Every structure is written in structure tokens, then in C-alpha cells.
Amino acid sequence: MQTVLVLFGGVSPEHAVSLVSAEAVLRNLNKENRRILPVGITLEGKWILFGGENYKDIAEDKWEQNPANCTAFLSPERGAGLCIVRGNGAETVPVDVIFPVLHGENGEDGSIQGLFQLSGIPFVGCGVCANAVSMDKSVTKLIAATTGVRQANWLTLRRADFKADADAMCREIMEHIAFPVFIKPCSTGSSVGVSKVKTEADLKPALENAFKYDKKILAEEFINGREIEVAVLGNDDPKAATAGEIDAGAEFYDYETKYVTSTSQAFIPARISEELNAKVREWAVAIFKALGCAGLSRVDFFVTRDTNEIVFNEINTLPGFTPISMYPKMWGAEGVPFAELLDRVIALALEA
Ligand SMILES: Nc1ncnc2c1ncn2[C@@H]1O[C@H](COP(=O)(O)OP(=O)(O)O)[C@@H](O)[C@H]1O
Ligand SMILES: [Mg+2]
Q1: Whole-model pTM?
Q2: Residue ranges of domains in the chain
């Protein structure tokens, strides 16, 4: 019997996305010879063992009210496992592997992986350092640059400098980058705080908005390209699935387009030549290795519309696992069904 602790929710702007991923993971996880412990983290940071049977309650955000719930938290004590508190009593349940179905802040940035490491329990996905580096887009860029991959020109900007002199910051951006300019927080995901700025008048409000989410943000050159995503899987010898493509069907792939409206369309394989597809997969693996990733990651690129140049955009170390998410779909196209993909990432966690 293998005990799998599935963590979901979390103190993150991507809490709601995690709930939808978690339902899909919990539903598809092969239950044979497995005990599943679904533990949700509320937006306030409370840890709850979900006592319900219906995983749909998680996706619909009705899981916190289940009467069979109880407090549970991962012990930092090596090998202790999950502490479950019921009434006045507490028990500790050993855990074989942890599957963090968490996105963004705290879940995908190395914070919780630090706790996993202390606990001594194997876990799915990248370790502390790769998560921390991949969550911060300015740091990611510096390391990705060592591979020689092209990236959009960028400036890293600090909130303190914006507060001191916002006009000077606007001038600095306009000196270095032509409109349209992308403004994005270094450490959010799901396009939270991201703006495409076309005029000087819109620059300051976009900066103000991005600085709401992070004290460090990026101003980036606009890349007119197809959005290409590559699913990478493995530890020492990672493999990339055939690259896919997202057509946002909107100005850019913003939060609404990702989760609310249905204008976006996925293409697997991406609508690029086989040769380009092979190249972009090679870059994805090179970047995965440079960042020290393990288990899984989705590496995102642009392929420019005029000259078919590959431009690296960002990496997601715990990509979405919703039924419509690209990561499982791209492996699906390689003949790896969702349930088998989950078995594989768990096996990779145990192997590492
Ligand atoms: N430099 C850029 N040029 C063109 N589009 C961009 C650029 N940066 C971001 N975007 C658009 O914004 C979306 C979100 O930005 P991204 O860097 O992927 O952040 P997130 O981590 O929030 O997904 C991208 O999918 C793309 O549509
Ligand atoms: Mg993205």
C-alpha cells in the first residue's frame, strides 16, 4: 500500500486554479494499492484533511464545509508524516510520497518544497532551488541565458524605485523598449498583474498594478509570435513531448482567456514545421536542465511570426493539471493517458 498525500489550494492568487487541477488529479489517480490523503490549504493558510468522497466539491470550492474534515498538517520531523487532529486526539500517518497540486506563490516557489525536504518524504516535481528560481521570472532569465536561448529584451524594476520616482521609471522603460511593452510581476502566474501597454499614458497604471503583486517586476519587449508550450518529463534524462500551441484568440493570453472565456484554442502539435518543433523541444530540455528541474515542468516559448525564431518566455514547474490543461494533453497526444502520467510523476519522485 502506498500512501499519497495530495496537497491543493494554498495561499496564492492561483488557489482557484489549484482546486480544479486537484479534482482532476484526485479523480484520475490510480487508487489500486494506494491510500490517498487529500489535504487542502485554505486561502488563509489553514491545513484541512478533506473528509468528503466527492472530489467535485474541491473544484467547486465547497470542500472546506465538509463535516468529515479535520485539521491535518505535514510534520517537519523526518519521516513522521501527516499529523491528523480529531477532537482532542492526534495521530501521525506515515506518507510515502507527496503530490503538490499547487500553483504559484508558496506552492510553486520552493517554500513548501522546503517543508517536504525537512519531512524527508519524496515529492513530485522540482526541488527548492529549481522552484525558487523558476518562480522568479527575472532570475529565470539570467539562468536561461546561459543556454544561449533567445529571450525578449527586458528590464527588471523595483517597487522602491517606482515609489521614489515613477516618471523616471517610465522614461527608463521608454528609452530601452519600444511600445507595445509587456509589464509583468516577477513572481505571479496565470497572467495575474500582466499588461500589454501600447501608449505612454497607460504605462504608469500598468506599473502600479504589477507592483501590487510583487516588489520586483519586468518590462519586456513585445514578441509577435505563436505561443508554444513544451511538456518535459523526467529526472536525469528528461524527455519533451511534441510541442503544442495556444492561440489566445485575444490581445494576449490573460487570466480571462485562460480560465473564463472560451476564445483560446489549443493545437497539438503546434502549427510549426516538424523541424522547428524538434528544435523547440531541444531548447525546452536544455532550459529544464539549466534550471535544475526534476520530475516535470512546462516550458513556454514564442515562435516569431515573421522569422520563425524561437524565443523562451517562461517555465512552470507545477503546470496546470485541469482536464483542459496543456501539460496532460500534450502527454496524452504522445499516448500517455492522464492516469499513467500521474503514475509516472510519482515514480519519478520516488526514484529521485
Ligand atoms: N514579451 C511578451 N511578448 C508577447 N506576449 C507576452 C510577452 N510576455 C507575456 N506575454 C503574454 O502574456 C501571457 C502571460 O505572460 P507570462 O510571462 O506567460 O506570465 P504567467 O506566468 O502569468 O503565465 C503570455 O502567455 C503571453 O500571451
Ligand atoms: Mg505563462
Answers
A1: 0.96
A2: 2-123, 134-149+224-351, 154-221
